[in-house]
Amino acid sequence: MIGAGRRGGAAEDADRRAAERDAALVERLRKGDARALDELFRRHREAAYGIAYRLVGSREDALDVVQEAFIHVMRGIQTFRGQSSFRTWLYRIVTHASLDYRRWRSLRTAESLDVEMTLEPSAGPAQRTPLEEAAARDLRQAIDKALTNISEKNRAALVLYAIEGMSYKEIAEVLGISVGTVMSRIFNARLRLRELLETEIG
To answer: Do 87 and 44 touch, CB atoms closer than 8 A?
Structure first.
């Protein structure tokens, strides 16, 4: 019984130290330190993936859910009040993202089809107007320009995933890195791409 108590105490101490480390990283992130977000991602990605996988039942979908969850973390960090631990807050985000995933996936698929119809020449009688042509051309140019400003290793992972349609495992094999590293690179590339596009287009 005494041994069990000691083990429990050690586990509680470890949990407290982990929570304190998370709290320090959250403060750094609020002040604009991007490295803090990457550290939080590394610390919690495996546990977040475990939750997502058990809720969505697909490895690839779970990886996507984790990516989206951390994007929500980045966007909502200024409103996080610390009333619960960062881990609890993150798990809540992952859970909601997982439960909403099927609906979100359907919407994203529809949006992708809309983009393809906009960017590709129409096969039907209706042709794009000059304004639509210019908008499509500007979007392609903005994306191409933004991609050139993403680090080479992150850009490679994003291109293989988003353009070539490769799985995380396939990308890991191609680049000779772990799936976890692939996740980190795609995550960072997505954030950077969004920032660049917001600056370029917005």
So the answer is: yes
Contact 112, 65 (CB under 8 A): no
Architecture of domain 121-202: Orthogonal Bundle (1.10)
User: Cα–Cα distance between 79 and 30 in angstroms, integer?
Assistant: 10
Alpha-helical regions (H) of the chain: 2-30, 34-56, 59-76, 86-99, 101-119, 130-148, 152-158, 168-175, 179-201
Do residues 90 and 73 lie in contact, with contact meaning Cβ atoms separated by under 8 Å? yes
C-beta separation of 189 from 156 below 8 A = no
Write phi, then psi, for 168 (nearest 5 degrees). -60, -40
pLDDT by residue (tens digit) across 80-89?
A: 988 888 998 9
Say what the pTM is.
Answer: 0.64
Q: Is the pLDDT of residue 151 over 70?
A: yes
CA gap 172, 157 in Å, rounded: 9
CA 45, CA 183: separation in Å to the nearest integer?
9
For the CA atoms of 149, 93, 84, 186, what is the dihedral angle to 10 degrees? -20
Instruction: Tell the CATH topology of 1-102.
Output: Rna Polymerase Sigma Factor; Chain: A (1.10.1740)
Structural domain spans, the chain:
1-102, 121-202
